[in-house]
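Justification of resources, computational component.

The compute hours requested in this renewal are based largely on the per-chain cost of generating structure records like the one below. Each record pairs the submitted sequence with a full structure-token output. That output is archived, and it is also reused by downstream analysis tasks.
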Amino acid sequence: MRDCIKHQNMGMALICFLLLSLSIVSCSPASPVAQPEATVALPAGSTLRALAQAHGLSIGAAVNVAALDGDPNYDRLLGYEFNMVTPENAMKFDQTEPEQDVYTFAAADKIVDFARSHGMQVRGHNLVWYENLPDWLTQGHFSRDQLMAILHDHITTVVSHYAAQVNIWDVVNEGIDDNGNLRDSFWLRALGPQYIDLAFRWAHEANPQAKLFYNDYGGEGLGHKSDAIYNLVKSLLQRKVPISGVGLQMHISLDNAPAPSAVIANMKRLAALGLQVQITEMDVAVQNDTRPMSARLAAQAGIYASMLHACLSVHQCTAFVLWGFTDRYSWIPQITGHSDAPLIFDTDYRPKPAYYALASALKTGSLPAAIFLSISASGLMNSSSLSQ
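The structure output for this chain reads:
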């Protein structure tokens, strides 16, 4: 699409065509600036959750517990559009065990209770990560045996607390670095490579019914990192470690989205191992693109739809989860210091082109024609991608 937009007349015509095909009336860019609070108007027609359920697919969003507590518009739209939630931070190590042997579940319980009351599944996130570890752990002086006992106790306590309510867990998160090696992390240094096997075995012992996932970023398509993830999970299976699937995070931007054909190929090789695959943390940053916002949102819509289509193309892709759903609470501006619009609702909860693109892809099971044309023009997808 980028090449098309270099030619202004052709590009703007394509953008208008795309937006019209997604039931947007105008080609005016949506404002990312927050307006005064108002009751959110829910999108008309079938919800994303209803459309996804027709495919046997879970569609979800990460949940900001502060927003859930203080913003009724957030609650209303979350429960209306999605059938799966992931706690954004509330289940991480430093949140659930801020002091040794002192567990706090109040924040995470609010998300789980909301999910139960709205008929939603919960993806537990996460049990073992190199980030969000409490100071008492990282700055303590523990032996290897003590650290093994600490991790065992933490996994057992958290998974057991939610055994009747949470049956999907990201057990190990981001255990491979960008070069395809095991990440030089606190847990690798403390326990060695076997920490991954142990974490899955302990989670399974705590809840034998739970689906257990390895979750990572940057391995959605084909390449050295996805090869490393594939080899890791294959080796876990060979050692009879109880792993159920792989989570592909999908934190991407307009200029680094993977080719859908590569995502499909990667999903298929993981599925051939007998594993489920889920897109677990999708957002599409637009801040580093210089085109008008209307053009950026049109390109963003195409990427969202193409990744959903990739998931729908592989039977073992069982969930499509966004890292939030409204730009109002996106993590990206907080990290980068720059405004962004990476999600499918704007800061005022208005549906963006990406929302309608997802709805259209779910209704038809295929990419809308305008999106296919725009992605084809950009070189992101070739015509064979849709048939793989």
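Residues 49-380 form a domain with the TIM Barrel fold (CATH 3.20.20.80). DSSP finds 17 helices and nine strands in the chain.
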